[in-house]
Here is the input.
Amino acid sequence: MSDFSSLGLSPKVLQAVRNLGYETPTPVQSETIPLVLAGKDVIAGAQTGTGKTAAFCLPCMDKLGHAGKHCGPLMLVVTPTRELADQIGAVCAEVAKLTKHKVTTVVGGVSYNPQREALRRGTDVLIATPGRLEDLMGQESVGLDQVGVVVLDEADRMVDMGFLPAVKRIVAACTAPHQTLLFSATIDDAVQKFADGALHHPVSVAIARKGETAQTVDQYLVRISHAAKPSALKALLQSRGAKRVIVFARTRHRADSCARRISKMGFKAEALHSDKSQNQRRRALDAFAKGKVNVLVATDVLARGIDVDQVDYVVNYDIPTQPEDYIHRIGRTGRAGATGCAISLVCPENAKELRDIEALIKRSIPEMTIPGFDVEAAESDAADRSAQLAARRSKDPEVEAAVKDLSAQKRKQRKKKAQAEARSKAGAPAAKNPSAKKKRAKQASAAQAPAQTAKPAKKKDKRSGVPKPAGGKAPAVTKDMRPGRAHRAAVERQRRRG
Ligand code: AMP
Here is the structure.
C-alpha cells in the first residue's frame, strides 16, 4: 500500500492531508492522484465512501494557479446536491488554508446576493450545483472561460436527477482547454456516453462494476407486512441500539411520519428531505453528526449528501424502487473501511424490487429475525389497528364495537397461547382449565363405570339389522351390508313363533 508522500503531492498539500486526519490513501486516491497531477482526464468509478472527494481536491488544488481579483474560477466542481457541495467545500477549505486559494460554493435554496458578491470578488475554486450555476451564468454573475479543470462529481446521480442537459451546457461554457475528471459510483450507459463526449482519452480508474456494493457492509432483510413495519422498526432500534442510525423512506411524507413515530417511541429523530429548507437540512445533519439526533430519516435524493462517520447501521424502512439507490443507501454505513450493516424491511408487495436489487448486487440478501420480536403478533396487531381505523371511519358504532370485540378476543387467545407455550417450554403442567378438568373427570368415571351403566345398545334397523344411530335414520343399506340368508331365515323363524 502506498502512502501519501509517494503520490507526488507537495509538502503543503501533504500537511493539509495530515490536518484532515488521513494517514494512508484509499485505493481511489492512490490511483487517481498521480494521474491528475500528470494532467490526464480521468473517469473514476468508485464505490460510495471511498474517499473520492480528496482524490480530486488534493491534486487539483496542488497544481492550481491563483486567479487574482475579479477573476476565475480556475477550477469548477459540479455536484448534484447542496450537501455534497458543502462536503466538497469543507475539504477544499481545509486544503486552501495551506494553498491560499479562494473557494466559493454556490447552491440553490439560499439567497443569491452573497454568492454573486463572492464571485464578483474573484475565486479560484467554484463548487456548484447545476441549477444555481446556470442561474448565475444567465445573470452574467460568473463566466467559465478561465476554467482549467472541471470535476463532474456523482455523474450517475446527476443523470438520474435530470441534470444532464444542464451539465452539458455548463461543460460547453468552459471554453478554455481544460482537464476533466468524472466521478461516478456506477458507470452505466448514460454516464459512459456522456463521458465519451466530454473527456479526452480518459484513463479509467478503479471502476466499480455496476452493482458492486460496499464490501464492508453486512446486509440482511426482515420479511414483514407493510402495516407492521413501525413495530419492526421499533424492535430493531430497541434490540440493536439507536446511537447513530439512518432510516430510508420512499417519500418525503413517509419520511416525516416515520420520524414522528420514532420520536414517539422515545428516540431522537429528524427527517431529512428536499422539502426542508437548506438551514433545516444543515441543522439536522449537524445534530446527527454531533449525536444530538440519533436517527436520521432520509429520502433517496439526499442519501449521498450524508457524510457522517460511524453510522451504526442503515434501515431500509421502504426498499428503493431503483436498485442502484440500494447501493447508495447502504454506502452511508461502512464508510472509508469501517464495518457497517444494512437491514431492509421487505413486504410481500416488494418482491419484484427485492429481485431487482439481488440481481444487481449478484447475491441474495439473507433473512434475519429481530430478537424478541414476534412477527405474527405484530402483523395481527397491525391488521387489527387498520380494521379499527376502517371501522371508525365507517362511523357505525355497532361495526366499531364488533371490531373492538374481535381484536380483544384475538389478543386474549394470543396471550393464552403464549402463556401455554412458555409453560410447556418451562416443563410446567398444563393450564388450570376447568372445562378440560371436567372432561378428564368424565372420561375417568366412564372408564370405571359398571356394565349396566353403559349406554344401551343401539336399536337395529328392522329390514337390515344394522344398528340405527341415536335419533336418526339407519344409514343406507349397501349390498355388502345386507344380512346373509341364514340370518334372514332365523329372523323369519322368530317372527312365526310369536
Ligand atoms: P468520500 O468518498 O469522499 O465521500 O469520503 C468518505 C469519507 O472518507 C469522508 O468522511 C472522508 O473524510 C473519509 N476519508 C477520505 N479519505 C480518507 C483517508 N485517506 N483516510 C481516512 N478517511 C478518509
